[in-house]
Structure formats: structure tokens, C-alpha cells
Amino acid sequence: MTRTRLTAEERQEQLIAAAVQAFSQNGYAGTTTDQVARLAGVSQPYVIRLFRTKQELFLAAVQHAGARIEAKWRAAAEREATLESLGQAYKELLEEPELTSMLLHGFAAAGDPAIGDPVRACFGGLYEVVRELTGATDEEASDFFAFGMLLTCMGAMRLVGPDAVPPQPWARGLLSTFGKK
Questions:
Q1: Is 106 among the domain residues?
Q2: Which of 33, 86, 109, 143, by CA, is between 20 and 30 Å from 46?
Q3: Does residue 143 lie within any of the structural domains?
Q4: Which 3 state secondary structure label does DSSP give 95?
């Protein structure tokens, strides 16, 4: 069996994908660089050589998730630059729950000053992208993000997305507007 040698950029992308998977499952505190290395099929010292610290790897994973959402929104805006089209694109991203879970873990770890500023910048950047692409007012963008956070939380609880469980009675009302926004 022949092994294909990856470029440094491809190896870095592979490590970030493994980091998103690991951190989205176990959070910042519950994930080690060794776990990420095993998922990526590399040594733990190699992970440290590329990212220096677990914190830098975590931030790269948060940035990856934010960049993936932004790219999806930009593609949707090329077809139709409305909040509805961006909302539909976000719903499609719920089929990749590790992305939204990664952001939730980033928000949860934002109490750490070294993590908080980059996470806030990522979220703020997404807010500005929505305003730029759609021309939404602050109020409209706020409503858009509020509903998006509801969907993100519902996805984290596995009430929407690819592995959704049947919703409990309290969730039905919240989910009743899912197809209407």
C-alpha cells in the first residue's frame, strides 16, 4: 500500500479538522492534543510543533468553524442576499453539528482572556458579514442571530440535525417556527 505524503498545508487542515471533531465532542478542557493527534494519525509532538499550544489549536478550530459558516453565507448570498437565504444556509450547516458545537465550546471557553478576544472577534465578524451581505439593520441582524443561537442550542441538544431525537413537548413550540424563518 502506497502512502501519499501530505503538504504542510494539507497536514495543517487535517489537524484542524481533527481538532474540530475532538473539541466539539469534549470541549476545551476535556480535550488533549494527544487526542487530536490520534484522530489525525500524527504524533502529539507534531501537533505542538505546528500549533505550539492546545490553546492555539483550539482557536484555529474556532476560526475554522467561523470561516466555514461565513463561506456558506457568502455562497448563499451569491444566489440571494437575504436573511432568509442565509438562514437556510445555516440550517444546512446544522447537518454538520461539529461546526456549531465547536462554536458553542468556543463561547463557553471565552471566559479565558486569551480565548475570549479571538472568539468574540469571530462572532463579531459573522455579525458584520450578515449585515454586509444583506443590508440588515442592527435589529434585524440581532433577531437573525437570536434565532440562529436557538437553532444552535437545539442542535447541541440533538433536537435538530442529522441525529435528532424526537422532541419533548416543550420543544415543539420552539421548533414550530423552524421552517418559517
A1: yes
A2: 109
A3: yes
A4: coil
Q: Residue 9, Cα to own-chain centre: how many angstroms?
A: 20
pLDDT tens readout for residues 9-35:
888 999 999 999 999 999 999 999 999
CA distances from 116 to 3, 58, 148 (A): 40, 12, 20
Give the total number of structural domains in the chain: 1
Which grid coordinates are listed for 10? 494539507
The dihedral formed by the CA atoms of 158, 33, 39 and 24, expressed in degrees to the nearest 10 = 10
Between CA 105 and CA 34, with CA 64 as vertex, the angle to 5 degrees is 65
C-alpha of 132 from chain center? 20
Instruction: Output the pTM of the full model.
Output: 0.88
In a domain, residue 84? The reply is: yes
Could you tell me the CATH number of the domain that includes residue 123? Answer: 1.10.357.10
Q: What are the grid coordinates assigned to 40, written together?
A: 489525525
Q: And the C-alpha cell for 23? A: 473539541
